[in-house]
Amino acid sequence: MKCNPLNLDKYINKGPKVFFIYGSEIVLRNQSKEKILNYLSGEGFEEILNVFTDDISDLDGLLMQNTAGSLFANKQCIVINHLSGKTPESFKNIHKYIDELYTNALIVVSCAEKISPSASWIKELDKNCTFVACAKLKSFEEKIWLKSQLNFLEENEKKKYVENIYNLNQGNLIAQQNEINLLELQNINGKAEGSDINNAEYIPFDLEDMIIKKDKKNTFKILHSIRDNNSHYGPLITWVLGNLLNACVFALSSNNIKNSLQISGVFNNKLNQYEKFIKSTSPARLIKNQKKIVNLDLACKGIIKKDFWKEIDYCLIDLLN
Fold it and tell me: In angstroms, what CA-CA distances link 314 with 17, 128, 292, 293, 306?
């Protein structure tokens, strides 16, 4: 079964919980994976096992180990992230393990731009898999996608911004996504003006709860309240965000997310929310923002010439989408 990101909602629950995402449009690949993970989370999948490029050479062993569980085990989602290079030979055996998934789901995210429908392993996989083709969008599809990303705007505003963003960045979804992110931040800031929250006293630890809840509105209200009233908290914000991201990235490599988070020092009453946050955010996004922490620290100290508060804004915009 084959679909594209624009009609994925119609197919996401039609077949076995096995998905193969591919295509040249990285924005659509990431969004498709996040949509599927959100769907699986609602279906009770409690654990995510991420497999990255370095481990794909031993994919047979990993799949054999993780599909040999009990029918009554926790629901686990295995996510295979093929981020670069040619399609690994080990992919040709994936179909052999589908009947043994039991309580598991499988998501393959491949950087391959195309797949060959005539390849024998694709034919076998197609019997029990939903393929999500993330190719370049046609003009009218781009506008449909753009409109779907602007749900934070009033309906009468959407058409204007769809045309503006499309005309400026036709064919470039990454640039369009950046414009959407900035527009959303401006929209949040506009609604925050005059709010009582800006007069309240907040500390960086208040940000943690809002970030893991993916509460954009209150994340930015609290962040900008701290910026305007207690800007000396900049280093502490960097530390809090760094700890949060380190804990999440460490948990990605573990078969038991909650145990990993506890080892990282996450409080017990926050474990469930952290787990939901990790499952709703792509590993690539977490890792990318984790790498930004060093530059945030240098900007905060004035060692590099970047606006610390703008850089924090951009980091959180990306992280909360």
Answer: 34, 40, 11, 12, 12
Q: What is the pLDDT of residues 201-218, one digit of tens each?
A: 788 888 999 999 998 888
* 278 vs 284: CA distance, rounded Å: 11
d(CA 256, CA 46): 9
How far apart are alpha carbons 155 and 177 in whole angstroms? Answer: 19
Instruction: Quote the percentage of the chain above a pLDDT of 70.
Output: 87
- What pTM, to 2 d.p., does this model score? 0.66
Ramachandran assignment for 171, one of left (phi > 0), alpha (psi -120 to 50 degrees), beta (any other): left
Q: Where are the domains of the chain?
A: 2-136, 194-319
Q: Does domain 194-319 have CATH number 1.20.272.10?
A: yes
Closest CA to 274 of 292, 288, 262: 262
Mean pLDDT of the chain: 83
Write down the pLDDT at residue 191: 58
CA distance 262 to 268: 7
